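pipeline/complex-builder :: batch 7 item 3
reading input block
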Amino acid sequence: MSDRKRFLPRLCAAFGCLLLAFSAGDARADFNSGWQAYQRGDFFTAMEEWRPLAEVGDTRAMFNLGTMFDEGKGVARDQKRAVELWGEAAYSGYARAQHNLAHALISGGGAERNLERAVHWLHEAAYQGFAKSQYTLGKMFSYGLGVPRDQVRAFDWIQKAANSGNPRAEYNIGKMYRDGVGVEADLKKAVEWYRRAAQQDYAKAQAGLARRYAKGEGVARDMVEALFWMTMAADQGLPRALGGRRELQTEMSAAEIEAARQRVSEWKADAN
Amino acid sequence: MSCRHKIGQRRMFYRRTILAFGLALIVMLPTVCSNPARASGEASSFVQELGSQAIGVLQDDSHTLEQREARFREILVKGFDLDLIGRFVLARYWKSADDDQRANYLRAFGEFIVHKYSAMLGGYSGEVMTVVSEQRSGDKDVLVHTRIDRPSGPPIVTHWRVRGSGDEQRIIDVVIEGISMAVTQRAEFKSVVKRHGIDGLIQILDAQSNKLSATAAAN
């Protein structure tokens, strides 16, 4: 009898575990089915898959539903609903939701504009190491939005994002070193950071690096390198690079222009 | 008519125009059953070519939606003169802006527009655009007239205002059912600048562009 008493609770526990395992498996499958539908552009199915998950507290599903309401994918655009969903996920600690909620509070889309609350949520995500929030938080300090203006703290947060390889942050750190904002001016370091972002195909950094080469600022003057990087930026449609490319070409020989063109071809061939 | 009712009507008008503009961008099809006798001009070819690139992206399911949207943004940047549109949209406030504000605004405006409309990419559902004709408009522009046929609902008449020639051609406005995208956007921005100033508008545009899309990442 005592054996049976011990056996029954164990059986129930095992059965319970089995059920949990199945339900967890189903939850993953639902999310993945939703993700596949989303990739196909079948937003209705994606919503159908993610909605039940969001209702039981899946923060990733809440976040994704929020983006669909915000962008009007598969549903009429509803920024207020997006903010509600992001808010729930943000309070559960989901960094992406904290990031989007902060941006909604900055833009006033779906929520009353509130820069102080935006900074609060950016801090929450930034302390989790979320690079895009670290970057925006740095910008908030740089412009004094929702916080007192503080270029040193701006530099610190943007550098954290740059250290994670965020190209926009890398470019901004390059500018801060160039201008001595929040940090002592250092043209060599400026070029280093521009280069990191430029190598990730960030057009503004490519144009900035081109200017440094053309002027010989922080790096030896090299017009071929200048035209190479300016062309890379211009090919992405950056308006100031289109003009910059024309200007550079007027100062260069045909052989130099050809060398730069060759360099662009090789770079693009390697990328493909 | 109450003030609230007027605002509601205006919002609905903006929303419909923006949706229609997004639709027009998304459905620029090159399978375009164009009428070559009436639409053989340079501007028509440009609009068709742009459409051909757009549909190439739309149909390429070997890439993620995020990658397709990024590619679509590149097409928008190359096909539209976003700087010119941006200046028009800011209207009289452009003159009062200093150089830094102008540069920041144009950057933010370009990013806002491409982010906003590329996010509508997935809404494509088999619409077909037909180039109907083109005509000169003033000294600088050509209006390309198109008709968008939809699987459901009546066709939408759309005009593309194209400026420049050869490789320098750019779209500077889209007029849908008589409503200009640029004029509509200008009305929206005017009220934002009145409340928050030009710097506030730039912050708002940046915040809209920097929001993240759906993800499969766990954190």
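note: The two ends of chain B are 49 Å apart (CA to CA).
queue -> next item
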